[in-house]
Amino acid sequence: MKHTKRGSTHYRVGFTSRHRWGKRMSTATFPEGFDSTYDNKSIHLLAHHSSRTRSKAAAFTVALGLAFVALPAVGVGAATTPTPPNQTVAQATVPGDAAATAKTLPGDMASVNQVRAAAVPAAAAGPAVVTLGFDDQRVSQASVGPLLTARGFRGTFYVISQFIDEPVGAHPESLTMAQLKSLEAAGNEIGGHTQTHPDLALASQTVQTAEICGGRTDLISDGFKAPVSFAYPYGSFNASAETVANSCGFTNARTVSDGPESIPPAVPMATAAMPSVQAVANATDPAVTVAQMEGWVTGAESGNKKWVQVVWHDIVTQGSQAGDEYYQLTPDFTAFLDWLKGEATAGRAVVKTAGEAVGGAAPIPAPIPAPTSIKPYGAIGALWTAKGGSGAILGLPLDNESDVPGVAGARVEDFTGGKIYWSGSTGAHEVHGAILSKYLGWGGPVGYGLPVTDETVTPDGVGRFNHFTAGRSIYWTPGTGAHTVYGAIRAEWQAIGWELGVMGYPTSDESDAVGGRYNNFQGGAITWSVPTGAHETHGAIRATWAATGFESGPLGFPVTDEFAIPNGRQSTFQHGYITWDSSTGAVKTVLG
Ligand SMILES: [Zn+2]
Asked: Is residue 91 exposed (0-12), middle (13-18) or buried (19+ Cβ within 10 Å)?
């Protein structure tokens, strides 16, 4: 893994308004990475933890007797960020879905792209083929069927088989079996989207088989036509998942990036799609406008990649009704459909379900996954049961608990949706989702300690965190992703109010500074060195410090946080200070 060096984010934060932190999201939103069923589920399950306040979490740490020492890095005396074992990210490949990006391995993406590149037809002939895809059977999709039917369109609805009939008001909310049946009766395609929406790139082939084939056989036993189209949860896949999906009887499997796609697709088990439709921007992706969507189609009309797969989640009349930013307002949705109807009437585009677009082979019978006989026990089993067992966030057990290699006395059990760790001193705690990915990427129990909390909702409701032994934490929000924060930097962050203070949430892992360490945050950064300790910088003062070259410039490291002076603010550095005048906005640098 490359160090999280000071990139554009680091610099950009330095030059934005000093009050940027105050504008961060005030409502809980969830990207596909933590979206939909999977993460609403986690909120639901963690609701009973919502009374855990920040001070209580802090007390937890203190109670463990942890000293806030600066760690040179995770691990014992390591000078650099540890290399993650198998979790390298491929940031550039999945523009529509940052969370998925972290899961599909670059090698898998590269081989898919290689095959795709070789297969693009040279000639541009025939109409664009548009597939209207709807993921996660969200309740708001109940409005979609009649809107499609009225225009003679049929869509593909990707269904999480074990979440059908989850009631409105529960998490996740799901269309009912009856609603899904009537969608199919109207000619829409019901596609597979696994049993419980796990991250398939992080799952064993056994689990992939259980989830992908099991989801398909669930739908068949529910009375749906044998599904031929599949969508990877979070767009996350690997070569094994492609093989499994095909062997289950699917003829095509959709990702969430790199569209438009060729017809026939070069890699039917990893078809390219357009970025997930979202009405508002988040930190990783801009909003998708109707004009852009029209551009996708006209581009395919004239280009040689003819297949436009559109990915929707919620269709709502107000954003507040949506579970996350992956929604489109009904007037925009119908505007696009009406425009598309014009293109279809003119013969420039044709709307097909994913199965129709790919056509071809009749599905082969699905292998029936063997039922699991594993029964979690002891403290791990008790926590798994308390979290809702196989029907909830952690899903099915993949193995019996076993020793954690390299951590004496610790035990771990793997589940389809996460892991539970136990030791005599920490008790049993679960880690899942993007936080688990980050944790494993930083070496898991050996590199980053054992969890001392379950995944917990932050007091503002926006973020999630796990605390780990030795004063380490991982914080996640939909807009910032999951990041490590620990040691003296975490102690400083805690002292100035955690995410509710001027810093907001971390936007980088702890990383190397020149002669020290730093974390970037939404509102600035905390920078540490041995002689200076950890101090925050933000706003106009930070921007000025940045312009001088941060700690490698003439000012050196900050030796104070920003503090009030008559008519303004000041940060003091090793070799001078910077002041900000509250009446004029002028910033003055004094060296020496
Ligand atoms: Zn999904």
From this structure: exposed
Per-residue pLDDT tens digits for 74-117: 323 223 333 232 222 222 222 233 344 446 667 777 778 777 77
Cα(261) to centroid(ligand 1), Å: 20
276 alpha-carbon distance from chain centroid: 13
Hey, which residues does 534 pair with through a beta bridge? 528
CB of 488 closer than 8 Å to CB of 532: no
Tokens of 553: 């410039």
Evaluate whether the domain defined by 98-112+128-358 bears CATH number 3.20.20.370. yes
Q: Where are the domains of the chain?
A: 1-24+504-592, 98-112+128-358
Tokens of 262: 């060729």
The C-alpha atoms of residue 43 and residue 515 are separated, in whole angstroms, by: 40
The 3-class SS string of 263-284 reads: CCCCCCCCEEECCCCCCCCCCC
CA of 255 to the centre of ligand 1 (A): 10
Residue 464 C-alpha to ligand 1 middle, in angstroms?
Answer: 20
Residues ≥6 apart with Cβ < 8 Å to 362: none
Which letter, b or e, does each residue of 531-541 get, where b requires 16 or more Cβ atoms within 10 Å of its Cβ?
ebbbbbbbbbb
Q: What's the token pair of residue 382? A: 């008790």
Stretches where the chain sits below pLDDT 50 are 1-102, 361-371
Name 226's Cβ contacts closer than 8 Å, sequence gap at least 6.
216, 220, 249, 363
Q: Report residue 334 as tokens.
A: 């119908």
Which of 5, 11, 79 minimizes the C-alpha distance to 543?
Answer: 11
The pLDDT, as a whole number, for residue 521 is 97
Residue 165, helix vs strand vs coil: coil
What's the pTM?
Answer: 0.49
Say how many Å lie between the CA of residue 326 and the centre of ligand 1: 11
> Within 13 A of 316's CA, how many CA atoms are on the CB side?
18
